[in-house]
Amino acid sequence: MESGADSVAPLNLLLVVLVFGLVLLWSELWRKPVVRLAAKQPRPLKPKTGADCPLCQAEQGAITNEGTEAISPRSWREGRSRRGRKKGSVTEGYACGQVGCLYYGITDTAIHALVADGHHGKYERIQDLKCQACGHKFTVRRHTVLYRLKTHSVRVAEALTFLAEGVDVSVLERIWQISEGTLRTWLTRAGLHAEKLHEHFFRGLRFAHIQLDELWANAR
To answer: Residue 60's CB: how many other CB atoms inside 10 A?
Structure first.
């Protein structure tokens, strides 16, 4: 009887080991992977005004560090070959409007990479420009009152002059056969453009002495 009991003991021990191993294997197979959440990043604040938006500040040339001057990129002329055709178009005062371009917002013709890129227009030749650095193309009328207007620029200038002098919209509509909606659209665009120019050139000015002359204007 003792020999039978001695032979059963190793079998029981082996059975316990097998059951324990199956339990461990089963737990490993069904264990769910632990997903660690990434650290929560602070939410970027949305700009509420033009002063909070870096793109708006770049368009106005206001991105400069306090107490330091803005560093201009290398002149485009220095990196191009001298054997090519010399630049004959006037690009002073115009700038590339592509935000990611190295020469974005630079109006100096000695630095930027703008060249003439043909003309377009049905009633008058409108110059097109191209930035050689990024390939962005645009017209010289971009960001002006005449942008995407099909009417001759002389007629638009005459209409805005008459409206500024107090001529009624119905008079111009009857004489030139131009709809009242078109004339008011021109007037609205001119007013918005004048407001931007005023904010750009006349904000933050400080004068020791100032003289004001008489000014009379009719507002409708």
So the answer is: 15
Give me 140's structure tokens: 């010289």
Residue 92: CB partners within 8 Å, gap ≥ 6? Answer: 107, 108, 109
Tens-level pLDDT at each residue, the chain (220 residues): 445 555 556 677 777 777 777 777 666 655 655 555 555 666 665 555 555 555 555 555 544 444 444 567 888 777 776 776 777 788 888 999 888 898 998 988 888 889 988 888 888 889 999 998 899 999 999 888 898 888 999 999 999 999 989 999 999 999 999 999 999 999 999 999 999 888 888 888 887 877 776 556 565 5
Which residue in 65, 43, 41 sits closest to 54, CA to CA? 65
